[in-house]
Write a structure and sequence with these properties.
323 residues; alpha/beta; Peroxisomal Thiolase, Chain A, domain 1; 2 domains; five-stranded mixed beta sheet; four-stranded mixed beta sheet; 9 helices; 31% helix; 26% strand; globular; binds oxa(dethia)-CoA
Length: 323
C-alpha cells in the first residue's frame, strides 16, 4: 500500500528573542508566573516587516535541502497558518513563487494550533490516493502581530516561527512496521468557537483583530481532547504508549503536555519539549519541535513518533508515524 513518509525536515525562528523578563514595562507579570504556569522562558518575535511567508520560505528551503529535493520535484505545497501575509492570495502561493515553483498547486490550511496536524493529514490523503507524490507541508505563524500586548493573560504565551517537512509516497506492506504515516485522526467542535478566537476579520469587522482566549476553559478541555485522538490512533494501529519512541505534542503549555503524557502513560523521557524556547507558535509548534528532536539526533529512522495538537475552534488531532 502507499504510505506517506517524511523525508526531510527544517525550521526557522526569527533572530529576536524575547525573554520573560522583557515583559517588564509592557504588562504586569513575572518570569516566575510564566514559567510556573506554562513552562515558557522565551519566544522568538519576527522583525518589523518580516512576514509569515518569510519564515515559511526559510523553513521550506531547510526541509528541501534536508530531503535533497528542489522545487521542481514538488507536486503540492500546503501551508498551515492563522496569520497569513494577506487575506488572499494564500501565503502558500507566495512561498510557491519564491521557491521558483510554477507548476502544481499551493494552498493554505487553517486550523489554528492544530494546523500542522490538519495539513499533514491532508497531505497523507493526497499521497495515498495517488493525487500527489511529493508534498511540502509547512506550519508558519507570526502570532506576535495578532496579540493584544496590553493583555497579560495572552501576550506572554505566544511566539513566531516556522517548520516544514517533505512528505513522499513510498510503499509499505500495510502493517504498523511500515515507515511513514500509519494513521491520522482529526476532530473539531464549533460549540467552543468563542473560547479561543480573533475578534476581527475581513467579512465581520474589516480589521485584523486580536487574539482572545478563555485560557482556563481551553485548559479544562485540552487533556481530554488530546487523549481522545491519541486513543483513536492506538485503536487504529494496535500500538500503545509503550511502543512510542517519541511524543511530539503541540507546544502550548508544559502543564498540558505533562498532564496528557501522564494520563496516557507515556514515559516523560520520550516527550519532546520546546515550549520553553519557542512559546506557543500555533501551527509552527509541532514542526519546530520535530526538527529540534530530529536535528539533535533523538528521532532516528524507524522510530515511532506520535504528534498531537489542540487549538481554536476547537480543533484537535493526532498523527502516528514511523520515521
Ligand atoms: O494552543 C492551544 C491553545 N492554548 C492553550 O492551550 C492555553 C490553555 N490555557 C493555559 O495554558 C492556561 O490556562 C494559562 C497559562 C493561559 C493560564 O493558566 P491558569 O493556571 O489557567 O491561570 P488562570 O487563568 O486561572 O489565572 C490565575 C491568575 C489570575 O489571577 P486571579 O484571578 O487568581 O487573581 C490571573 O489574573 O493568574 C493571573 N494571571 C497572570 N499573572 C501574572 C494571568 N496571566 C498572568 C500573567 N502574569 N501573565
Amino acid at each position: 500500500m502507499i504510505r506517506s513518509k517524511i523525508t526531510g525536515c527544517g525550521s526557522y525562528s526569527p533572530s529576536r528573542i524575547m525573554k520573560n523578563a522583557d515583559f517588564d514595562g509592557i504588562v504586569e507579570t513575572s518570569d516566575e508566573w510564566i514559567v510556573q504556569r506554562t513552562g515558557i522562558r522565551q519566544r522568538h518575535i519576527a522583525a518589523d516587516g518580516e512576514t509569515t511567508a518569510d519564515l515559511a520560505e526559510k523553513a521550506a528551503i531547510a526541509a528541501m535541502q534536508d530531503a535533497g529535493v528542489s522545487a521542481k520535484d514538488l507536486d503540492l505545497i500546503i501551508l498551515a497558518t492563522s496569520t497569513p501575509d494577506h487575506t488572499f492570495p494564500a501565503t502558500a502561493v507566495e512561498v510557491q513563487h519564491r521557491l521558483g515553483m510554477h507548476h502544481g498547486a499551493a494552498f493554505d490550511s487553517q486550523a489554528v494550533c492544530s494546523g500542522f496536524v490538519f495539513a499533514l493529514t491532508t497531505a497523507d490523503q493526497y499521497i495515498r490516493t495517488g493525487f500527489a507524490k511529493r508534498i511540502l507541508v509547512i506550519g508558519a505563524e507570526t502570532f506576535s502581530r495578532i496579540l493584544d500586548w496590553t493583555d497579560r493573560t495572552t501576550c506572554v504565551l505566544f511566539g513566531d516561527g516556522a517548520g516544514a517537512v517533505i512528505v513522499e509516497a513510498t510503499t509499505g506492506d500495510g502493517t504498523s512496521n511500515d515507515r511513514g504515516i500509519l494513521t491520522c485522526h482529526l476532530r473539531s467542535d464549533g460549540r467552543h468557537r468563542d473560547k479561543l478566537y480573533v475578534d476581527g476579520g475581513p467579512s465581520s469587522t474589516q480589521t485584523v483583530g486580536h487574539l482572545r482566549m478563555e485560557g482556563r476553559e481551553v485548559f479544562r478541555h485540552a487533556v481530554g481532547m488530546i487523549t481522545d485522538v491519541i486513543e483513536a490512533a492506538y485503536e487504529a494501529t494496535g500500538l500503545g504508549s509503550e511502543d512510542l519512541d517519541w511524543f511530539v505534542p503541540h507546544q502550548a503549555n508544559k502543564r498540558i503536555i505533562d498532564g496528557s503524557a501522564k494520563k496516557l502513560g507515556i514515559d516523560p523521557e520520550k516527550v519532546v519539549i520546546t515550549v520553553d524556547r519557542h512559546g506557543n507558535t500555533s501551527a509552527a509548534s509541532i514542526p519546530l519541535a520535530l526538527d529540534a528532536a530530529y536535528k539533535d539526533g533523538r528521532i532516528k529512522p524507524n522510530d515511532l513518533v506520535l504528534l498531537e495538537a489542540m487549538g481554536g475552534g476547537f480543533t484537535w488531532g493526532s498523527v502516528l508515524l514511523r520515521w
